[in-house]
Specification:
Elements lengths: L37 E2 L3 E9 L3 E8 L4 E8 L9 H14 L8 E7 L2 E7 L3 E3 H5 L9 H20 L2 E2 L8 E4 L4 E3 L6 E2 L24 H4 L6 H17 L9 H7 L11 H10 L11 H14 L1
Antiparallel strand pairs: 1-2, 2-3, 3-4, 4-6, 5-6, 7-9, 8-11, 9-10
Helix pairs in contact: 3-5, 3-8, 5-7, 7-8
Length: 306
């Protein structure tokens, strides 16, 4: 076999109230950082690891214990959005609740001179986006791709069991460490979907945060978040890993629906696995696999039948 690799509104009450939270004062968010900057007289920023839509991530050293960590700092246009600092705090709070081997570990949220940031574990490896861009002779084998999909489903299933939907699952938000462990990160626009955790009222589309080519039709239509939104993205990523291509040629779900496009599924000799992925890619929620736990069960069953 050839080598293969490779956001909505809620009616519930928000946990954070931006009008009463000093983090929402955009006049505070003016401090700039670069390698060498020291935060809280404790964290020394080293090299820039990556830039995202609303934040930068730096390698850093915690001088209190010598630990190598990463620090995510709110930057760019998002630092002036009244809800953006609250979104970052929510990411830190929610990710701390999601202790799991396949979800990045977050340590602390803090603010200094208007700079909003949180600390997290430092990872060594590459994002799935980087891996998918590698030339053919550096791609992952079939078994490695399957292992990545399984680990993604495990991490998402844990989040779903805690009532949290990621809402922006994509290769750029997935990390593969040097020892082949998958880590899901960037829960910045994740949504709580149960009353215990407290769902928020912010429309992530207003923050420009969703990635349309991985967003479900319901997310694009600003419907209440549901675990099946993550399953849709997971199905797309499975196609990229197993077939080296986006199943809808990078079209968003609304366009796919309007044009009545058919998914380009991976050419693999396992019809049960193809059916599982196809069920994840259904455009309408009522026809799609409901959550990552069910997806994982169908995936494992398909692999046993191969």
């Amino acid at each position: 076999m050839k080598k293969v690799i490779s956001h909505t509104q809620s009616q519930a009450i928000t946990t954070f109230q931006p009008m009463n939270n000093p983090l929402s004062d955009n006049k505070l968010n003016r401090k700039k950082v670069s390698p060498g900057t020291v935060l809280k007289q404790r964290y020394v920023l080293e090299q820039l690891l990556g830039k995202g839509g609303m934040s930068d991530v730096f390698a850093a050293k915690d001088q209190s214990n010598g630990q190598n960590i990463a620090i995510k700092v709110l930057t760019g246009d998002f630092r002036d959005h009244p809800h953006a600092p609250i979104v970052l705090k929510r990411e830190a709070d929610k990710t701390r609740q999601l202790a799991h081997p396949n979800i990045v570990e977050v340590y602390e949220f803090d603010v200094e001179d208007g700079l909003v940031f949180f600390t997290m574990e430092r990872l060594d490896g590459s994002t799935l986006k980087e891996i998918l861009k590698k030339p053919a002779d550096q791609t992952l084998m079939y078994d490695q791709a399957i292992a990545i999909i399984q680990q993604l489903a495990l991490g998402l299933a844990h989040a779903h069991s805690k009532g949290i939907v990621h809402c922006d699952l994509k290769p750029a938000n997935i990390f593969l460490t040097h020892d082949n462990q998958v880590k899901i990160f960037d829960f910045g626009i994740s949504r709580a979907i149960n009353d215990k955790l407290g769902a928020d009222i912010y429309d992530t589309a207003q923050l420009g945060a969703i990635t349309l080519s991985y967003a479900s039709l319901e997310m694009i239509n600003a419907e209440t978040p549901h675990p099946s939104d993550d399953v849709y993205a997971l199905g797309i990523i499975a196609c990229e890993l197993l077939g080296e291509d986006h199943p809808f040629h990078w079209e968003d779900a609304k366009t796919v629906t309007r044009k009545q496009l058919k998914a380009k599924l991976p050419k693999i000799p396992n019809p049960h696995l193809i059916a599982c992925i196809n069920n994840a890619l259904q455009l309408h929620r009522h026809s799609r696999i409901a959550n990552a736990e069910i997806f994982l069960a169908e995936l494992n069953r398909a692999l046993q039948l191969s």
